[in-house]
Amino acid sequence: EGEEEEEEDERKHQKLLEAISSLGAKRKKTLGERSEAAVQMSEFTVTAEGERDRVDLSDLIGSMEKTPGVTSRTKKQLKNLQKDNKTIESPLSRQETDRIQRDVAFQKAATEVTKWKGVIKQNQRAEQLIFPLNRELTLRWRRRFFSLLHANKQPIHDPILTPAEEASMKAMSLEEAKIRRAELQKARALQSYYEAKARRARKIKSKAYHKVHNKAKRKEFLKRSMRLELNKIEMARMQERMSLKHQNSGKWAKSKVIMGKYDLVARKAMQQQLEVNKDLTQKIVTSLNAEEEEEEEEGGDAEVLPDFVNDAEQAVDPSNPWMRGKLSEDPTEKDMIVDLTAEEAPRAAEEEEEEEEEVKEPEEEVLLREFDERRKQRQAQEAEAQITVEEEDDDEEEEEEDKAADEEEAELSVFTSLFREKAEAAADVTDTSAQLEEGLTRIRTLEDVELLSVPQEEAAADEAPLPPPPAENPPPVPQKREAAKPKKRKRAIELKEVLTKEPKVIQVPLAPTVEDAEDADEPLDQRGLIKEAFAGDDVVADFLKDKRKQEDAGKPKVVDLTLPGWGEWGGTGLKPSRSKRRRFRTKAVPPPPRKDQRLPSVIISENRNSAVRLHQVNSLPFPFQNHSQFESTIRSPLGRTWNTERTVKKNIKPKVVTQMGAIIEPMAREELLKDKRPAAGRGGRGGRGGRGGRGGRGGRGGRGVDSQRRHIRDKRAEK
Amino acid sequence: MKVKVLSRNPDDYVRETKYDIQRVPRNYDPTLHPFEVCREYTQALNSTKLDRVFAKPFLASLDGHRDGVNCMAKHTSSLSTLLSGSCDGEVKVWNLTKHECVRTLQAHEGFVRGMVVRHCGTSFFTVGDDKTIKQWKMEAPGYGEEEEPLNTILGKTVFTGLDHHQKDAVFATCGQQVDIWDEQRSSPIRSFTWGVDSFSAVRFNPVETELLASCASDRSIVLYDMRESAPLKKVIMTMRSNTLCWNPMEAYHFTCSNEDYNLYTYDMRYLDRPMTVHMDHVSAVLDVDYSPTGKEFVSASFDKTVRIFPKENGHSREVYHTKRMQHVICVKWSADNKYILSGSDEMNIRLWKANASEKLGVLAPREKQASNYSQKLKEKFQHHPQIRRIARHRHLPKNIFHESKELRIMKEARRRKERNVRKHSKPGAVPVVSEKEKHVVTVVK
C-alpha cells in the first residue's frame, strides 16, 4: 500500500511540475502520457525496479570476461578503474577555461612572432638599409598593376580621363565651336577688307602715284629675287666647301693627275674643275650684303673705328714690338717719341706721367719697393769694396754676362759673406737713406718686381763708372739712371715703338760694376728681406720674458692673513710678531711641474680656456664606455681631405637609403625565409647584414666603439 | 741661366676619354693636412647651423573640407593619392602633387570614423556614425553615374574604427566589440568581446598579418589572433590609449598614443612593461603612425603639434606646428618615407617634410655626397655642447613652451616628494618604480 501511495504522490508531483512548467512564457511540448509498463520511465532518469537499485561497474564488466575479442590490456585497465574509487572533478568554470584558452593562444602567437627576432636584430645592426627591402617583388607587383590598368584602358597617370571620356569631351565642346566660328568670321571680314582696299587702289587715276607704286613694287620684287639667288649661291658654296667635290681629290681627279703629264685634255679638264671649285667657293660681296652690313654698323656705332680694332689680339707676347707692326704710324706722334737711349730731353715730361701712375700702386707694392730699395742700398755698399769689371753692350750679351757672373759668384761668395755681416752692422744707416729715396723707383706691377733682378744688374752696371758713393747720401745721378731703366722696359711694350726703327746701341765705357751675389739665390734674399723688415724686434728676449711671466703667474702665492692687534699690541710702527706672522702665513703646496719646463722654446698654457671650453664635451656620452674610445672616434677624420675616395665612400654611407617615389611595403614573409637560408647566402646581400664592410678606416680606431654600441643595443633589444 | 721646367708624364693626368673623371692627385700625408678634428668640428657646426636655417618643413595645406578632418587613409599603390574623411561625413580624395581635391563624396551621416584602402588599391572602406560600413570604388563614377557604394553593411552598433588585412579579403571593425568581416559576407565571421567595452581603434599587424590589436575604453590594449576564437591578452594602463600602430618592419613592436600625453612602445610578448616611454607632448596624443622604414613614428596631439620620435628615443627629434593648426586629429607618414600628412580640427590637411631641412627633388651625386658627409659629421660631433644646442633648438608656441615647463616642474616636484617619502620611511617600504612600470596597471591573461 505504502508503495502505491508513493507512486500516487509521484504522479501528482509530476503533474504539478508539468503545470508549473506550462505556466512559463513558452509552452513546451507536452509529453505524451503512457499508461503502460513504462510509467516510471522519464526522459531523464532511469528508475530500475527490483532489489538492486544501482548498476555496478562490475556487473557490466562481468560480460567482458566472456567476450573473446577484448585484449588483456583493456581488461587490466578496467580492473584498475574498478579499484579506483575517486570521483571525477567537476568541469572548470567558463572564466577559467577561457583564460586557459587565451593563454595557450597567446603562447602560440608569441612563439610565432619570435621567429622574426633574427631578421629584426640583423636590420638593427645593419650598417645600411636600402628601402624598399624587396625590390624585385614590388617591381613585379607594380608591373602587374600597370598591365591590368592597360588592359582595362584605365588612365595610368593623373589625367584621370579614359579615352572614352575624352572622346565624349570632344564631342560636347560647345564653347570651342563658338570660338571657332568667331575666328572664321573674323578671317572673312579681314579678307573682304583687303579686297576692298585693293579695288580702291586700282581705281586711283593719278599716274604719279602708280609710277611710284610700281617702282617700289619692282624694287621689292628684284630684291627678293636677288636674295633668293644669293641664297642659292651661298648654299652651293657651302656645299662645295663641305664636300670638296671639285678639289681634285676624287678618284677621277687622281687618275687625271696621272694622265695629265701626257694628256693635254686631261690637264684641261682638271683645270676646269679647279676653276669650278674656285667659282663656287668664292665669296660674293654684293651690294645687297654691303647695304645690310652698313645698316648694321650704323645701328651699332656712328663713329668709324679703324680696322685693326677688330683684329684679334695676338696672344704671343705683349712686349714684342714685332707683333704690333700693323699699326700705321702717326708721323706727329713719331716725332714726339724720343729714343730712350737718346737721353734727358723728354724725361721730365715722362716722369710726370709715371708719377701719376705711381699713385695707383697698391700698398703692398710700396712696401715691396721699400725693401727693394734697401737691398739696392746695400748692394751699393758692397760695391764699395767689390769692384769688378763688366761689359755691357746689348741685350743679347746679357746672357753671356750672366754666365760670367755665375762664375765669378763662386769666387766671390767668401767675400760677400764677409761683407754681408758688415752691411748688417750698418743697417741703421741704410734705413735712413732708404727713406730718402722713396718714390723714385718705378715699379708698376708685381711682374715688374719679379723682373727686377734683370734691370738690377743693368743698374749696377750703370752705377759702376761713377765714383763709389758713400752710404750716408747716395748720389742723385745713379738714382736717376736707375729710374730710367724700368722705363726702358716699358718702352718696349709701347705701341708706338715701330719696327722700322733701329735700336740704338749705347756705348758705355768699360767700368767696374758691382757683382751681386744675392740675386742668384732667391730664398736667401727673401730671408734677408724679412730680417730687415723685423730688424727692431728682439723676439727671443720677448718670448723668454713672456714665459717667465707665465711661470710666475702659475706659482702659488703666499697668503698672509696676519692682522695687527689681535692678541698683542697694535698701532703705528708696530709690526705683528714673527710667531704670529708665521702662524697666519699659509704657504701653498708647490704645483706639479710645468709641462714646458724642459722645452725652452715653447709655452704650454695650462689654464683652461673658457672660450674653448664652450665647445668641449664635459661628460662621456652614452654608448661609449671610456674616454679613449670616444677620443679615438673623434680623432679619426671622415672627410676626403684625409681619406682615400673609397674610405670616404664607406665612411659617409647613410644608415637608411630610400628610393625616390618608391612605396615601401611592410616587411614581407619572404624576408623570414631568406633569413632561414644558410649564413653563407646571407653574406652576399648588398648593404645588409652588418658583416659586409667594417673597419676600413686604416687603424684609426672607432671600430671597437661601433661593435660596443652594437652590443649594448642588442642587450637592450633583448630586454 | 738654366731654367728648369716641370715635366710630367701625360699618362698620369690625361684622360683616355672625356667621360672619364679627372684624376686629381692627392697627397694624404697627415702633416700636410693638420687640425683635422678642428676643421671637421667647424664643418659640423656650420652644417648644423645650416640645417636649422633651411628647416622649412611645411609644404602645403589642403583645404576644402567643411568640418574637422577625422580620419585619413594612404593609398596602397599610389603615392600621390590621399583619402580623408571629415566630421560631416564627407570623404575627399586628394591629389598630393597638385595639392587639389580630385573627388568628393558624401559617405555617411555624421562622422566618418574610419577609413582604409583595400590592399589592391581599387576600392576603399569607410565606417561612420550611421552604423554602416561602406565599400567604395577608387575611381570616380563616370559621367551620369551616381556616386554609390559598392557594398553597404548595416551594423547593430556604431563602428569607431576600421582596418584591412594586409593581403586577404578580410577587414576588422571595432565598436562595442571587435569584429572580423569577410568582404563577401554581410555578417562578421568572428567577433571578440572581453568584458563590456567600447573600442576606439583596431589595427592589423602588417607583418604577422593574422594578429590584431585594439584600444579599449577601459584603458586597455587588447591583442587578438584572427584564427583564434578568443582574444590573446590585454594590458590595462593608467589612462586610456587612443590609437596604436604596429611597426611595419618589426613584427612584435607597436606604439600606442595615450591620453596621459605620452606614447608607449610595447613588445607584444612582454606587455607588463613598455619598452620605451615617449614623452614631450603637453596634451593627449590622438594619433600615431610609423614611418614605412620602421625607424621613426609621428604623433598628432591635442596640443596642436605634430611630433616625430625615433622609435627608441624617449624624446622627439622634431616638432611641427603652425599658427593656424588646431588640434591635430589624424596623422600619416607617406609610403615613400618623405612626407607627413596631418589632418586637424580646422578642416585642413597639411603636408610636411619628414626631414625638415631636406632638399626636395633629385640631387646631383656631389650634392648627395656632400649631404651624406655633413650628416655623418653631425652624427660624429652630436655630443658636443654647441652642436647639440643648435640641433635641438626649436621654436615653440608660447603656451606649449610654458606648459612643458610647468609639466617638468610638476614632475620634478613629484619625484622630490617620493624621494623624501622614501627617505623617511622604513627601507624597502616605498619601492622604486621605474617610469616604464609606472604606467601599467596590470596585464590580464
Automatic annotation (TrEMBL), chain A:
GO cellular component, one term: small-subunit processome
Species of origin: Sparus aurata
Main location: nucleus
Record flagged with keyword Phosphoprotein: yes
Comp. bias (Acidic residues): 350-365, 389-411
UniProt biased composition (Pro residues): 465-478
Biased composition (Gly residues): 681-704
GO biological process: rRNA processing
Cell compartments where the protein resides: Nucleus, Nucleolus
Protein name from the UniProt record: UTP14C small subunit processome component
UniProtKB/TrEMBL annotation, chain B:
Pathway(s) where this gene product acts: Protein modification; protein ubiquitination
Domain called Sof1-like protein: residue spans: 354-440
Alphabetical list of Gene3D superfamilies matching this protein: YVTN repeat-like/Quinoprotein amine dehydrogenase
SUPFAM superfamilies, A to Z: WD40 repeat-like
WD repeats: 62-104, 278-319, 321-362
KW rRNA processing (keyword) present: yes
Pfam annotation, one family: WD40
GO cellular component entries: Cul4-RING E3 ubiquitin ligase complex; small-subunit processome
InterPro entries in the cross-refs: Sof1 (IPR007287), WD40/YVTN_repeat-like_dom_sf (IPR015943), WD40_repeat_CS (IPR019775), WD40_repeat_dom_sf (IPR036322), WD40_rpt (IPR001680), WD_repeat_DCAF13/WDSOF1 (IPR051733)
Molecular functions (GO terms): ubiquitin-like ligase-substrate adaptor activity
Keywords: Nucleus, Repeat, Ribonucleoprotein, Ribosome biogenesis, rRNA processing, Ubl conjugation pathway, WD repeat
BP terms from Gene Ontology: female gamete generation; maturation of SSU-rRNA from tricistronic rRNA transcript (SSU-rRNA, 5.8S rRNA, LSU-rRNA); protein ubiquitination
PROSITE patterns: WD_REPEATS_1, WD_REPEATS_2, WD_REPEATS_REGION
Compartment annotation: Nucleus, Nucleolus
Top-level division of the source organism's lineage: Eukaryota
PANTHER family: DDB1- AND CUL4-ASSOCIATED FACTOR 13 (PTHR22851:SF0), U3 SMALL NUCLEOLAR RNA U3 SNORNA ASSOCIATED PROTEIN (PTHR22851)
Family: Belongs to the WD repeat DCAF13/WDSOF1 family.
Protein name: DDB1- and CUL4-associated factor 13
Gene: DCAF13
